[in-house]
Amino acid sequence: MRLRTQAKRIGDIFDARSHWVMLIAYLLLFFAFILLPIILAVGLSFTNFNSVSIDSFEGLQNYIRAFTQDTVFMQKILPNTILYALIVGPGGYLLSFVVAWMLSQLTKTARTILAVVLYIPSLIAGVTISTIWVAVFNGDRTGYLNDLLLQMGLINEPVSWLQSSDYLMPIMIFVALWSSMGIGFLSMLSGILNVDREQYEAGLIDGISNRVQEVIYITIPNTKSQMLFGAVMAVVNTFNTTGLGVALSGSNPTPQYAGSLIVNHIDDIGFIRYEMGYAAALSVLLLIIVWLFNKLAYKLFGSSE
Fold it and tell me: What single DSSP character describes residue 254?
C-alpha cells in the first residue's frame, strides 16, 4: 500500500512537471545556439579580443569607436543598411501581401503553381545569385544586360554594373525584392485563404462596395497574426542579409563599400582583420536595431487584447 502511494505521488509530480521535461531539449538548444552566443558577444564587446586572446578590457570604447572613429561605418555602412532596410523591408513585405492577396483570388491549381514558382527564389537565392544575376549583370559584352543594351544602341560600351558604386546598391535591392517571397509570404497567403467567406458577404450588406474596402476592413483585421509573423521575418531577413553584395561584386568589402551592410562589416572586422571585440560590439548594435524594429512590428500588428 505504501509503495502504491509513493508511486502515485511520483506520478503526480511528473504530471505536474511534464511540460518542463518536454521542453528540456528545446531549452538546451536555445541556450547553446542563441542565448549563450548573445551572452558571449556582449561580454567580448567590452574587450580587445583578437580571436586568440583578450588583450585588455575596453569598457564602452568599442561602442564609442563605432560612432566617433569608424568613419566607414558611419558614412557608408550605416547609411547603406538603413537605405536597404527601408526599401527591402517594407517593400518586400508589402509586395508579399499584395501578391498573396492576388493569388487568393485564383483557382486552387493556378494558385498552388504560382505560389511555388514565387517561393522558389527565396530558397535558392544563394545559388542563383552566383549564376543568374552575375551573368545578367556581367561587366563585359557577355553580360546579358550589356549585350541587350548594346544591341539596342542605348550604350556604346559595356557597363561594370557590379563594380560601380552607382549601380551595386540598386541591383542588390532589386535582387532582394525578387527573392522576398519567403515564409512570410506563405503565412500571409494561408491567413487570407482562411478568412471566413461569410464575412465578405456580411460586408457587402453593411456597405462595402469594392475590393480595397474588403482588404482594409475584413482581410487585414482577420490576418493580423500572419501579418505580424511576416513583418518579424521581413525585419530579421533584411538586417541579417549577409552574402548578397559580396556574392554579386565578388569581394568583401564591396567596391567603395557601395553594397556593404552591417553584417558584411562585421565579417570584415572580425574574420579578415581579427578585431573580434569590435566586431562583437557591432553585432550587439545590430541585435538592438533588430529588436527595436521587431517591437515596432508587434506594436503595429500585435494583438490589442
Answer: P
Mean pLDDT confidence for 144-168: 89
Distance in Å from the first CA to the final CA of the chain:
50
Which residue is associated with the grid cell 556593404? Answer: 260
pTM above 0.85, yes or no: no
pLDDT 10s digits, 181-230: 888 888 888 888 888 888 888 888 878 878 888 888 888 888 888 888 88
Domain boundaries, the chain: 76-301
Instruction: State whether CATH 1.10.3720.10 applies to domain 76-301.
Output: yes
What is the DSSP track for 41-78? HHHHTTEEE-SS-EEEE-TTHHHHHHHHT-HHIIIIIH
* Burial class of residue 24 in the structure, from the number of CB atoms within 10 Å of its CB (0-12 exposed, 13-18 middle, 19+ buried): exposed
Question: Which of 34, 38, 64, 57 lies closest to 277, judged by CA?
Answer: 57
If residue 142 lies in a helix (H) or strand (E), which one and from where to where?
none
